[in-house]
Specification:
By secondary structure, this protein is of the alpha+beta class. It has one domain. About 40% of the residues lie in helices and about 10% in strands. It is built from 6 helices and 4 strands; from the N terminus they run αβαααββαβα. α4 packs across α6. The termini are far apart.
Length: about 170
């Protein structure tokens, strides 16, 4: 069975993610390598370190300095965040940081799981696939006076990245 793109967009919108791009994917059952978890763990670390290129998106996450530094050094995910596969590896996705993105666990990751599971018996799936490495819903990213998107907050994050990477 296949659902249309229009139906998929309406459903993801019903789940509160009307700005989430979707990718059509035909699942390819894939056997995981025996050492997949060790590879995954290493990839998560590399992925978090790669987020230094996402200072603007990180600013909208409203992290403490400790959470921010733990994230971009690859040491720990902030509370309520998840690293997700764009295409699940059991459905033909690659074990690669290019196949990963970060989002809030609740409600976004939970809703994405629900969206994918609702399509479980379909021959073709519509998978959440944000344009950037971090999914921040558009309604959250608007910022505002005194919000977490002020130039002061972005300046603080940029200074932390510079300091962490010894770019001074």
């Amino acid at each position: 069975m296949k659902i249309s793109e229009t139906v998929a967009i309406a459903r993801i919108s019903d789940l509160g993610m009307d700005d989430m791009p979707l990718t059509e994917h035909t699942p390819i059952p894939t056997k995981l390598p025996a050492d997949w978890f060790a590879i995954y763990h290493k990839l998560c670390h590399q992925f978090m370190e790669s987020l230094t290129n996402c200072a603007t998106e990180i600013a909208f996450m409203n992290l403490s300095q400790r959470e921010f530094m733990a994230l971009i050094t690859g040491n720990a995910l902030p509370r309520n965040t998840s690293i997700r596969w764009r295409i699940p590896i059991t459905m033909g996705g690659e074990l690669s940081i290019n196949n990963m993105f970060l989002c809030r666990t609740f409600p976004h990751s939970h809703r994405m799981d629900r969206f994918i599971l609702e399509q479980a018996n379909n021959d073709t799936l519509w998978l959440p696939n944000p344009a950037k490495a971090i999914y921040i819903p558009a309604h959250t990213a608007s910022g505002g006076t005194g919000g977490n998107a002020t130039s002061d907050r972005l300046t603080q994050i940029a200074a932390q990245i510079v300091s962490n990477n010894s770019l001074e």
